[in-house]
Design brief:
Blueprint (H helix, E strand, L loop, with lengths): L2 H8 L3 E2 L10 E2 L6 E11 L2 E3 L14 E14 L26 E5 L4 E6 L6 E6 L1 E6 L8 E5 L2 E5 L3 E6 L4 E6 L1 E6 L2 E6 L2 E4 L6 E2 L7 H24 L3 H8 L1
Parallel strand pairs: 8-10
Antiparallel strand pairs: 1-2, 3-4, 3-5, 5-6, 5-7, 6-9, 7-8, 9-12, 10-11, 11-14, 12-13, 13-16, 14-15, 16-17
């Protein structure tokens, strides 16, 4: 395989899927804050956006993305894709591998607002101003830390997992993974199945199976991206791979 193909495989390659959010094309983002999916009424710094703008707009530092009756998906990190070989490819069947999802995506529900504070890939940082957001993290390069601020509290994530922030109910929840939260001078470590009410005495357990419309949309978008990236990677596989498989 040529050097160009190798570079493409090791970069974050995104295929826009045929949904109401985006059109079908490849996009590589070198900065955090790529607006990747839009549904319904969404404003960027007070200016209405439409789904055709998805994939072509980057949030700048200080920019605010606000949903009214709508949803939005922002890529904070594009992750890394390893070089596929005959031992690796069969494990990707079904598209469930976290290697075929974004390094980190944050998804906003209805009546929510996010302000991007840092757009560097090694240290993305945002503030949830209003509403709710799900942070879906997988395949981050070592040393990358994602930070989120909500109602004066600061959460940091450096490993794969699924996290939710609710500004109106003032809490941070960990469905999978681990997060460190600083609130009112206190440091709390949250593991899977625990959440921190920012006005409560400390972490408490919760039902990770309970889901609302934002959780279900997050699951659907994660599945779409997984399948799309898997399809993109299969197209890059060396032509000789299938030949070798037939000869075995």
């Amino acid at each position: 395989m040529g050097s160009t193909a190798n570079i493409a495989l090791r970069c974050a390659v995104w295929i826009f899927s045929a949904t109401a959010c985006v059109s079908a094309q490849v996009v590589i983002s070198a900065r955090a804050g790529l607006i990747y999916c839009l549904e319904g009424e969404v404003l960027l710094n007070g200016v209405p956006l439409n789904s055709e703008m998805a994939g072509f707009r980057l949030l700048k530092r200080g920019s605010e993305l606000r949903t009214l009756r709508g949803r939005a998906e922002i890529i904070l990190h594009s992750g890394e894709l390893p070089y596929p070989d005959s031992a690796f490819v069969p494990k990707m069947v079904g598209g469930d591998s976290p290697l075929h999802r974004p390094g980190a995506a944050v998804r906003l529900g209805d009546s929510s607002a996010l302000r991007l504070l840092d757009n560097r890939l090694e240290s993305p940082r945002f503030e949830l101003v209003a509403g709710s957001a799900v942070l879906d993290v997988s395949g981050l390069p070592r040393g990358t830390i994602i930070a989120a601020e909500i109602r004066g509290a600061k959460a940091s994530v450096s490993r794969s997992g699924l996290y939710r922030l609710d500004a109106d109910s003032r809490r941070i929840s960990v469905y999978r993974g681990e997060a460190k939260v600083t609130s009112e001078g206190r440091l709390a470590s949250l593991s899977a199945g625990t959440r921190l009410p920012l006005e409560g005495p400390g972490p408490e357990p919760f039902d990770v199976k309970a889901a609302d419309s934002l959780d279900r949309w997050n699951q659907w978008r994660a599945s779409v991206l997984s399948q799309s990236n898997l399809a993109a990677l299969k197209k890059q596989i060396r032509p000789s791979y299938r030949t070798r498989r037939r000869l075995r």
